[in-house]
Write a structure and sequence with these properties.
Elements: H1 4-10, H2 19-31, H3 33-39, H4 44-66, H5 73-99, H6 102-109, H7 112-124, H8 130-147, H9 149-154, H10 159-177, H11 187-208, H12 218-245, H13 248-255, H14 257-270, H15 276-291
């Protein structure tokens, strides 16, 4: 008989779950990430380190016992490089949340699809299409409304905004780096090496910056464990399950609702509020990003 641990990690207990329900659970899980970061009195890089470490420690026993961890040198290199990029993404994301509001940081970080389209054009000479450029224009207009034209022209931006933008770029690079590898390598085996590389890199960065890695309160440890198991592990297992059963474009658009979920949680738990300009600008940004996923319908 499979243990509950085995069933949880490999996703067996989700087989009979509606994929849309699984996706909704995943979105709620990752929406809590900014809330955890805001609640803990911890520097950005150590928080990122423990997020990946706790998720990896929970995943590793199953992978070591039930998975063939043999992997080609090329795929191991890709998983490792992707782990380093993901580490930079999470570290930048944490700094963005700490220096801005959870809602605005999450919104700016969701610009990833635009960077993916632009990098695809530059690196692979693949034209993203008219819907992408129109969506990018709408999102750009939303950014102008959200941040203010005067602030953009004079570059008077909150550091949190810049870190959020950096995070979105790093995640776009991560997506392009891992393109195709999951078709060759088991998802959990990839996560084993990817998260291990990311955790080791963040651990070294924490030591290099002389950041405290111990001596935290019980509350902080619980928040770190929740960040690793709820947001990192459970969140992405349920989302990956949904991706297997739902069109990836629909999943990508649905993931934009993370901003709304995070905004509601930030209002409820943290007492954060947004003004009319931020709401309007945010709606335009989300609409623009969503538009980049639209495909032209074939003529009948």
């Amino acid at each position: 008989m499979q243990s509950a641990y085995h069933s949880y990690v490999c996703g067996a207990n989700f087989i009979d779950m509606n994929p849309k329900t699984s996706l909704a659970i995943g979105i709620i899980c990752i929406a809590f990430s900014p809330i955890f970061i805001k609640l803990m009195p911890l520097a950005a890089i150590p928080a990122a380190f423990y997020r990946l470490l706790f998720a990896w420690l929970f995943l590793a026993p199953y992978c070591l016992l039930a998975k063939n961890l043999r992997i080609g040198k090329k795929d191991l290199l890709i998983a490792t490089v992707a782990g380093l990029v993901f580490a930079l993404d999470i570290a930048s994301w944490n700094m963005a949340i700490q220096q801005s509001t959870a809602t605005i940081a999450t919104l700016i970080a969701n610009l990833t699809p635009l960077w993916v389209g632009l990098l695809t054009l530059v690196l692979y000479k693949k034209q993203p299409g008219a819907s992408f450029w129109l969506g990018a224009l709408i999102a750009l207009c939303g950014m102008v409304v959200l941040l203010g034209l005067g602030n953009l022209l004079s570059l008077r931006l909150n550091p949190g905004i810049l870190f959020a933008a950096m995070s979105s770029v790093f995640y776009a690079i991560y997506i392009l780096t891992t393109r195709g590898i999951l078709q060759r390598v088991d998802t959990l085996v990839f996560m084993f090496y990817n998260m291990l590389a990311a955790a080791l890199f963040l651990g070294l960065l924490s030591l290099g910056s002389h950041a405290a890695l111990t001596g935290f309160s019980a509350r902080t440890w619980l928040l770190l464990i929740g960040l690793g198991l709820l947001c990192q592990l459970l969140g992405w297992i349920t989302i990956n399950y949904a991706i297997r059963h739902i069109d990836s474009t629909q999943v990508s658009i649905a993931l934009l609702s993370q901003t709304v979920a995070t905004g509601l949680l930030a209002w409820w738990i943290l007492g954060e509020a947004v003004n009319i300009r931020e709401i309007l600008g945010g709606m335009l940004v989300l609409a623009g990003i969503g538009f980049t996923f639209l495909k032209r319908c074939p003529r009948g």
